[in-house]
Amino acid sequence: MAAPESGDGNNGAARMVTLISSDNTRFEVEAAAASLSQTLQLTILDGGGGGGDGIPLPNVDSATLSKVLEYCIKHAPAAANGGAPNATAVDRAELERFDNEFVNIDQSVLYSLIMAAHNLEIEGLQSLVAKKVADMIKGKSPMEIRRTLGFPDPTPEEQAEMNAHMLEYGWAYE
Amino acid sequence: MAPPPTLPDEIVEEILLRVPPDDPGRLMRASIACKGWRRLVSGPGFRRRFRQRHRSPPLMGLILNCIDENGVDMVSFVPTCSFRPPHFDLRRWGAIDSRHGRVLLLDVSPWKSQSGEVFSVWDPVAGEHRRLPPRPTSGYLDSFNAAVLCAAHGSCDHLDCHRGPFLVVFVGSYGESMFSYVYSSEADAWSASTSASHYPYFPEFTRSTVVVGNALYFDLKAPVRILTPVGILKYDLGTQEMTVIQPPPVWNGLIVLTIAEGGGLGCVSVMGSKLFLWSREAGPDGDMGWVQSRIIESEKLFPGDHAVMKLDVVAFEDGGGVVYVGTDRGSFATDLKSGQFRKIEGVSGFNDIVPFMSFYTPDRRRPEAGNSFTTEVVFPTSCISVVPSGGNRKERPWAADLAGDERARASQGPRIHHVRVPSHSPEYNHIALFLGVTDASAAPLHDIRLVYSPNDHLLEQVFMLTGRWFHQMKGLEVLND
């Protein structure tokens, strides 16, 4: 664990905060990265999460949290520039490349990620993952969409509804 | 790790909001994939947020004015994305304008000169037609044009107003005078405008129209073969006053009115292989004048090839910043901002097209399946002979009945048939359009009454046309005689 910081966080070194996942793993990150989460930002502004206290995140497991933090650390510098209006094209291209690789993951991880991004209110990540899922269902039938998203097989009633829909809106299935 | 069985609504919405608006099929299929999703995406909240997020409605298709295999004028919907309107081959109609999710159709049947111009407003997304009543006075016109727009033109963002009230502005010229009429869908009536300005050159209207600010602009050209623009008619939507303004100094070919990059009135003209972009701006002395803002080269479109022989600007997406150019190599959508050309499949460069832009999200406000409607149609017996003989009597007993009893009927006078048409049949909207039924969900009606008159020749062609529809109709039922 890094040396504890003073509460004001203005002593030169970046202020660190500790996040605790649902399975009790502790993650130490820069406050600036964790602050990408709207939920955490308020706690951090109030001086929470420093030292040995840590901020418990009972809804996020350690595998998901480490993924979330990977995103936050990468995006924190750009976010600190106020959405990076003066970022170079190279920087933007690098972030875009990172984002594309970042969501190139297993469907179940994507699933936990979208829940975590939602709970932690990390706007950029929410948007990134939602876009990925929207892309994943491109060109797929309702049944394939269910399978892609890992939903159980439809009930007979749902199946009948799907069939009727296909009859009524044939163009959407061509 | 197994995913949870359901996603919260907020997340589903986050995902589905990111489906591109030009892929409405994806949204439709997703909406039915999971219980609850359909309710979510067809609700007013999602509909509004989806539109606000994407801002400009995508191009859904091109309304193509063409002729069918029998030489009958018709409008056809050429899709540019997955969306297909429920019924999209409308015979005896021509499309003249499209804006705010609606298409303005003009009756182009041969008897139109007798009965004056008849318009219909088509909402391809809702699958609804509204046949407009005739204008209060009709008479000979040198030239006319008309435009459709949302009635709340000043206060609406036009993202989801295609089912709301609308206006049709009609402008006509006769001799040196011009006049206008406005149809309001709320009043379901035309009102005559006071303005009648004089213009000495007997101009003709082209089809180009654009709404800029609180005014509607109509392009005018000199009559007979001379394509030079001679003026632009400005119709003030607030005061209903008309004024003619100078066109840009263009002496070759037609212009298409556009919205300039700065938001003011603009236009595009063609010379050689170049598109010229003009905008109307205030000069140093405060007077409004035309400024050539840009030139787009079309030659780079065909590198290393022969120059294009034909290049015409044919249409402008009102609100889309895209003009359509017809060339001898096909039809191209040209983005005025980027200068990029994109080939449009399904139409040639010589086709007469009206671009149709709209959002499409699943909507529960559709007419309920199973509704049908009642109205009376007067048909002349003199055209009975056009009913195809033979065929399956069971499918169209009325036709066989008519053909066999022609002479007797002519002497007996009007004769009435009741026909029930299910609203989910493809013919429903054709007939609804023809009969002027606007909203079947608001007034569920039953049965059609067909009245055959021995003397009325006015609807002869319609009868043939309707006969065709009826011939195609499944489940047609003659209830009594």
Automatic annotation (TrEMBL), chain A:
GO biological process: jasmonic acid mediated signaling pathway; protein ubiquitination; ubiquitin-dependent protein catabolic process
InterPro entries associated with the record: SKP1, SKP1-like, SKP1-like_dim_sf, SKP1/BTB/POZ_sf, Skp1_comp_dimer, Skp1_comp_POZ
Coiled coil: none
UniProt key word Transcription regulation: no
Domain SKP1 component POZ: 16-75
SMART domains linked to this entry: Skp1
Keywords: Ubl conjugation pathway
Family that this chain belongs to: Belongs to the SKP1 family.
Protein name stated in the entry: SKP1-like protein
Annotated organism of origin: Eleusine coracana subsp. coracana
Name of the coding gene: ga14711
TrEMBL record, chain B:
Residue spans crossing the bilayer: none
Record domain F-box: where: 7-50
Superkingdom of origin: Eukaryota
Protein name as catalogued: F-box domain-containing protein
PANTHER family in the record: F-BOX DOMAIN-CONTAINING PROTEIN, OS07G0120400 PROTEIN
Organism: Eleusine coracana subsp. coracana
Gene3D superfamilies named in the record: 1.20.1280.50
